[in-house]
Amino acid sequence: MQLLIQQKWLALPEDQRASLRSYVVDLILQYSSVENLSKSMHNILSKLNSILVQIVKYEWNSTWRSFINDICESSNKNMSICENNFYILKMLSEEIFDHSKNQMTQYQIQELKKQMNTDFTTIFSLCKLILENLHQAKQTLVRACLETLNAFLSWIPMYYIICTDLIDKLVLMFPSDYLRNHALACLVEIASLPIDPNNQDEKNKYLFMLQRVTEELNSLIPISNEDEKVQQMLASVKKKNRNVFE
């Protein structure tokens, strides 16, 4: 079915495309609402997610402009659906920003990137809701949220990093053995982003992040100069922002 979508989707009548889209969405909601899926069912759900992402790439800018709102609203139904929706969003981001070069025209890619940026506020609100309710959410849901957020960090507007408490929330996850590495991966990604040397707010936020990460990790384990993750973060900041911190 993925091959059909990639090669002939736009040749199908609009009513057939709408019917197929609804059918795939209904199946995804049906499967993802079940906790502890069997391996075979999980594989089916993963394939359905991939099919949906392919459909979205063709429909989002035309007949399905409400896609982001729809998927975020459906996340309120239960935590299992929300968890799967994060993985769909992660796949969509990777498709648009990493893997779409040989599948779509440059114009299509740019239009999807614009749409993703336009709709990101809704996605960020969903991420923020999960991160603010860590104790109520399943750990697998929080992990899915962090993995999805990590896929977004390379392209989202700096506002969401500098002008929100995202960094604070990530650092506060360090005491959790289950979430620490995922939170740290997000911080490493943030550290690799270039910042404006003339923007004091950005510079201060990055310095604050490095200080907080070091303090939190020191409170958990002895940190030496050989600590790989910390050194990776420091190296990323220094490489991308040498003119700022020297």
UniProtKB/TrEMBL annotation:
Q: Name one GO biological process term.
A: ribosomal large subunit export from nucleus
Among PROSITE patterns, the record links this protein to: IMPORTIN_B_NT
* Ranges where the Importin N-terminal domain occurs: 1-30
Question: Which Gene3D superfamilies does the record associate with it?
Answer: Leucine-rich Repeat Variant
Which molecular function terms from Gene Ontology are attached?
nuclear export signal receptor activity; small GTPase binding
By its UniProt entry, which InterPro entries does this protein fall under? ARM-like (IPR011989), ARM-type_fold (IPR016024), Exportin-1/Importin-b-like (IPR013598), Importin-beta_N (IPR001494), XPO1/5 (IPR045065)
Domain of life, source organism: Eukaryota
Q: Please give an example of a GO cellular component term from this record.
A: cytoplasm
The family annotation for this protein states: Belongs to the exportin family.
- PANTHER family for this protein: EXPORTIN 1/5, EXPORTIN-1
User: What is the name of the protein in this document?
Assistant: Importin N-terminal domain-containing protein
Organism from which the protein derives: Nymphaea colorata
